Amino acid sequence: MAALIKSTLIKSVLIHGLAVAAAVSVAIGLPDLSPGTDPALGWLGGALILLAGAVVDLHRRLASRERDTLHRLDRLQKSVDALAERLDRPTAPAEAGDSAAAHEAVLQEVKLLHTLVARLGESRPPESPEPPRTSQPSRTAFQAPRPPDLRSPAVVAPPPMDEAAVLEAVRDALAADRIDIHLQPIVSLPQRKHRFFEVFSRVRAADGSLILPDRYLEIAERAGLMATIDNLLLVRCIQLIRETERRQHAIGFFCNMSAATLSDAAFMRQFLDLMVRNQTLVPKLVFELSQQELRAGGAVTMGILSQLARIGFRFSMDRVSDLDIDVDALLRHEIRYLKLDCGLLLDPALALSVEDVRRRLDGTGIDLIAEKIETEAQLDAILRSGIDFGQGFRLGEPRPARKTP
């Protein structure tokens, strides 16, 4: 490029120099060649020659620029032709592999959904829980009355249905895909930044009203439908994680896993196969089990948990009523989050037991989450305690997934 500019400048200088020399020669020499000629004519002739030289140089420059433009257009056309040729070629093996993997993942999810829907016509007895393990008497049990589940939208009253009507509404909602997903944030404290969302299911009746968990859970469990509801929730949770990946949101999801889900061997085999093929989704999903279910879990339950842990899943324990917690057992089963009710954490009678739990959790990598924070006074007390995570209506109520950013 520098050589081209230098050459262009030299040519321009030469042309202008020759034009100036010719113009001066005519202006001075014309009166001498033709005596009696007005000297002004000589200078006029010189000016015309100078102008002609400038026109010649301008024409040369325009012609050179036109050639450069045509050359660039030619190169651009070649690039376009090359790109078109690449698009016309068959997909590269790596790209084809990625596309095939994504397609296979979607097919597996659809297969899981078909499996769940197919069960709706089956008449199955409720899942029999495994016999509980014997345990030593607990040192400290939290026996305070359990408050109503404030995570359920309080503004929607359960419809006046008898049990048969509730069961029929649940079956109809499953068949018509009216199991709604609600999300409640789990935030870091004191920053209150959203770090996780807990996923809840809500059954929507045909008239649009919500049937709350405290109304349908026991009925659905007796009818053997809880595994289907929980498994459907799990598949929807996977789809939510895929959506957050597309939006490049770094957030995780807590999903409740009941004993009914763990004992559903056919579903768990399909689910494990799906997650082995989609390892990037694993760190963003935390399974949540109650203290009672973990303690009552037999060989089947603990075997499924071990398989999930081997592929990278981590767990959370909630609904804790007994503060005699075996921290080593939590670590052994990859339980990395412990949820304690705000009422338990702030009960003066349990202050020493709570402090003992926090001391034993220190340095283990198990995070403590204060849940059911419903008032400003509770939030202030939790903030003063230094707990790292919080959940509850005061920090964010459950909202439909479609309204979640």
UniProtKB/TrEMBL annotation:
Question: So which domain of life are we looking at?
Answer: Bacteria
Q: Which CDD domains match?
A: EAL
Pfam families in UniProt: EAL (PF00563)
Q: Which residues cross the membrane?
A: 9-28, 40-58
Q: Where is the EAL domain?
A: 163-405
> How far does the signal peptide extend, from start to end residue?
none
Start and end residues of each stretch annotated as Disordered: 122-157
Q: Which UniProt keywords apply?
A: Membrane, Transmembrane, Transmembrane helix
* InterPro entries per record: Cyclic-di-GMP_PDE-like, EAL_dom, EAL_sf
One GO MF term: cyclic-guanylate-specific phosphodiesterase activity
Q: What is the designated name of this protein? A: EAL domain-containing protein
